[in-house]
Amino acid sequence: MQTFLNTIGGSAVAAKRSFESFNPATGEALGRVPVSDDAEVAAAVSAARAAQPTWAARPDAERKALLMEVAAVIHGNAPMLAEWVTREQGKPLGGLGPTEVPGSRFELWGCEVWTQVPASLDLPAEVVFEDDTRRDELVRRPYGVVAAIAPWNWPLLIAIWQIVPALRMGNTVVIKPSEYTSIGTLELVRLIAAVLPPGVINSVSGGGAVGARLVEDAGVDKILFTGSGNTGARIAEVAARRHVPVTLELGGNDAAIVLPDADPAQIAMGLFWGAFLNMGQTCACIKRLYVPRALHDATVAALKALAEAMPMGNGLEPGIAMGPIQNRMQFDKVNDLVASARAAGADIVCGGVPREGAGLFHPLTLVTGLKDGDRLVDEEQFGPVLPIIAYDSVEDAIASANRLPAGLGASVWSSDLIAARAVAERIEAGTVWINQHGMIHPMVPFGGIKGSGHGVEFGVEGLKGVTRPQVISLRK
After folding, report:
1. Predicted model pTM
2. Which residue(s) pair with 13 in the sheet?
3. How wide is the angle at C-alpha 259 spanned by C-alphas 255 and 260, nearest 5°?
4. Using one digit for the tens of pLDDT, what is the confidence trace for 281-295?
5. 444 assigned to some structural domain
6. pLDDT per residue over 108-136, tens digit each?
7. Are 295 and 222 in the same domain?
């Protein structure tokens, strides 16, 4: 069985210990992943720190050109990397077109695009004040070494979201992938490192202790983290103690509100993929659906028809639309939340019982008859289960959407765009979509508020997030 390697200072580095990575659809062992020890983490940070001044001193045009080469390398290796995503994460290979299942091929397409866009953007000096006596310019400087910790749900795409803007602005990076989905990310870093100068991009791997060691390292100047709220809180404590800035994306419990004038048949497909993209294992998926009582049954029926028509299985096989839950911990959590809903007297409209046999397969599950305060409503399930809650007034729905600590995304569904906009403006979330959900774009800032984190990624605002401001003040 192959043991995969980290990349430190431009070289492949083995570790004294390793662990097996498994395919969640079959249970098969895929390879061994190194467990970086303290010395290897320190070496990765040191390599990044040594490389950073020269990397930052390169002209913008050179860094942009090298990142375009990275995009070309991703494109050329997309089939191999997409297969690793499917084998490790579980999402189907899918396709790229608007009618295709958005799976691993879509993820690799996103990696390419989210590399090209930051590589094409500029962040010029801004004249913030000028008169006859002085001229003040605001310029952006790199932080230095960026520590990035990526999650298991979109392992390569979110890694790229962290890596590329940081590199574009003159930082160097040490990234730690999730221990559940390490191999594809280690291979991605290996390919990127072959294009860039040694030490500009480095990787370490292992469990939470490795991530903790990385963010504690005195050589780290900025932390990017996507993951759970509990881990994010611990990272924020470390960052506060070290006076290091952080960007945190800590998941959500996104509410979708269907307004009374909506047509359930027209919005069903958008609601479905808004909830079940990547088997619901997406931070900005619909996790709670609020529907007017008069539209409840028609909405449930339309979603049930879609859910029962989606083929589920090993994502390497053709025609598969839905894969497994990625890991046993999440699988057990989803099952526990469904059991709690059943115990609360909810109606399991479809699904609800894990599939027997190999793999962590849980059918797409629709649940009705719940209310605010029930666990499946209040806790982020991060899986293929959607509670659908009937409401009697729009005011009630808005209050329900805002009552939880999460604030990543939300959506409003209506044929009246003015009315939808009015509701959207009252929802406490970093992004509120209208007649769509989770539709991110590389030029549009994305991030959460409240318990879903702080800071944004993507576009010009995302570039600002990996730089520090400096004022150059000139006396004339």
Report:
1. 0.97
2. 6
3. 145
4. 999 999 999 999 999
5. no
6. 999 999 999 999 999 999 999 999 999 99
7. no
- Residue 329 burial (10 A CB sphere; 0-12, 13-18, 19+): exposed
**Exposure b/e, 163-194, CB count within 10 A at least 16 = b:** bbbbbbbbbbbbbbbbbbbbbbbbbbbbbbbe
First to last CA, the chain: 68
Spacing of C-alpha 104 from chain mean position: 14
For the annotated catalytic residues, the residue numbers are 249, 283
Contact 370, 346 (CB under 8 A): yes
pLDDT at res. 98: 54
Domain of residue 279: give its range.
Answer: 254-434
Residues 282 and 181 occupy one common structural domain: no
Q: Are 330 and 419 contained in the same domain? A: yes
Strand, helix or coil for residue 188: helix
Give the pLDDT confidence score for residue 101 in this predicted structure: 75
What CATH number does the domain containing 179 carry? 3.40.605.10
Q: What is the pLDDT of residues 178-206, one digit of tens each?
A: 999 999 999 999 999 999 999 999 999 99
User: Which tokens in the block code for residue 175?
Assistant: 């990234």
What is the domain count for the chain? 2
For residues 236, 242, 246, 248, the Cα torsion angle rounded to the nearest 10 degrees is -20
In a domain, 1, yes or no: no
Q: Is the pLDDT of residue 11 over 70?
A: yes
Q: Are 237 and 366 found together in one domain?
A: no
